[in-house]
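Input chain follows. Return structure tokens only.
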Amino acid sequence: MKVCILGSGAYGLALSTIFNKNNYEVVCYSNNRKEVHSLTKTRLTPRIENFTIPKEIKFTNNIKQAVKSSTLVVIAVPARSVDEITKKISKYVTSKMHILIATKGIENKTCQFMSEVVERNINTSKIAVISGPTFAKDIVTSSPIGLSLASTNLLTRDLVKTMLENETTKVRETLDIIGVEVCGAIKNVMAILSGILDGMNTCESTKALFLTKALNEGKVDIAFNYYKFDKLTNNFDYSFSPYNEKVVVLTSYYNVTTSANSLISLKGKQVLMLDNKLANYMSDKINIDVKTYKKPSSLFNSLGKDKIVIMDYNTYNYYKNNELSNYKVIYEQDLNTDYNFILLNTNKNKAFVSLYKYYISTINTDLYKSRALLKFNNDSKKIDLTYIYMIIGLTVLVVFSIVYFKNKNVSNKIKKEDKMRYVDHLTSLKNRHYLNENYIKWQANKIYPQAIIVININKVGHINDVYGHEEGDMVIRKAANILINNQLEQSDIVRTNGDEFLIYMVGYEETKVITYMRRLYKEFKNLPYKFGASLGYSMILDDVKTIDDAINEAVLEIKTNKESSEDK
């Protein structure tokens, strides 16, 4: 199989080495003839130091030649160039090709994500998005890396994962394309500046000074609101804070004299804490006498029967059966730490502010904090939970690619104009964004039986190629009308991609599901061109089988039935 990589930058070249290592034919496109000549001749690039490009990787400035006969087309050009290059390749992309977006960012003019730009210019549903965090240097040296892969097209997702994975490259899958793109676009905004300031060992006031200046000058759009920002001249908005913390007060089982009925009751007593932002919060906001330690081992060595310790619950839970086994909880409290974000709110930024505020409200921080904490051993790492919060909330989300959406009153949180985001404009059915929002809700539903039906309209690609895309769209609309006219109660119908639909059903026995499918199958036979549709289903009878399992079973049934039909 052939892989076409559009772009000869560091990341595009790095990805080319993965595909080459996995024994795929790789062709890289650049519109710069001199660069193509240089890369072909020298096998060196100034973008990645001490890296020799494998001789098997080819280069061309002929875009038609690059795209032709490719199984996978990888978009790795800068965000500003995605619109132009997707328009160029649109006439060469066939229904058999899959598109992988490696470009991060938001289109400046439209505030659209890269997947939306691609969909705007190329009539395909076989789209996937990939993100890191990964560095080109680490990829080309075959260091262990993790990639996040998002696609609502299961076939595309499976194909890309197969083509990317090897002994050093691991891929995590998700349906949440927008979630991956949001994190990819914003993860560097604050981390770079904060990281520089942390590296300089600056105090909190200095950090606030630099961030205030950057915000006022429009050099940064978002900042962590733990700092005290003074003299801001621009208009700002504040996000919902997901970082409310549960803290525990500990003392020895042998200490019978010390008690606590509030955090304020600890005034006048010295408490031991790890050196992190939570300690700063206790000292600054609660006015508790805090003695801090850089390492957990240092704190544990200072423990005694008369000592008082304050920790966040996740850290305590991690150490309670070992180093803190002789310590008891005498008080606990849910603490609003005000770890939210301040957002530059100008006319240009309104779309981003709205999106980010909604998105940050959906984060399951407990999961991320627990996972992050497990990566720190007892001595070698400093447990700075605020640092964890920043990186987890904005960067590690990309690694894990697990986005948990709130399911209650979602429609009330979104403005009326945003609701069209969940409507497929061709069919008026719900679209894959709706699927992403409701996936976890379906998974949490404990009413059984449930059923997943996957419907693939046959030979839409053939109709597009032979009769034109307008005819293909007409067939898709006719199919959607059949589904709408035959929709059952307690069911959801989603157009997941160009020629594929998904139905989620609750409360129907398998015999009724089969009867319903037979009715749909008969109706689809009357579609224009008489190619009909292929259907597959899967029943969910308990919480062991996931929605993902059911979708994969239904897709597999379609594939098996098609192969069986071809054999006959």
